[in-house]
Amino acid sequence: MDNPPPKIVQGYKFNIFYPDLIDKSATPEFSLKPCADNPEFAVLRFHAGPPYEDIAFKIVSREWEYSYKRGFRCHFHNNIFQLWFHFKRYRYRR
């Protein structure tokens, strides 16, 4: 009650497990494309290669914070692809 959750999306965390990758040297990739029907959303697509198909998520289309200090993470380690990011916050200043 004293600390309610935020009313807007602050960021996303994706942890995707790829245990059976055929080519261990090729790391999974992600791509971000704007949504055709609504400009407020974008499609985040993960591509890993065989034997996996692509995975796509519809997310809010805002500018990302790419600083590791602010929580950005894009790693592929121990067959887990991690993509964590927060959106930039624009503060009102007089």
From TrEMBL:
InterPro entries with a match to the protein in the record: Cactin_C
Position of the signal peptide: none
Name of the protein in its database record: Cactin
Pfam families attached to this UniProt entry: CactinC_cactus
GO terms classed as biological process: mRNA cis splicing, via spliceosome
Annotated organism of origin: Papilio xuthus
Domain Splicing factor Cactin C-terminal, first and last residues per copy: 2-94
Superkingdom, taxonomy of origin: Eukaryota
GO cellular component terms, semicolon-separated: cytoplasm; spliceosomal complex
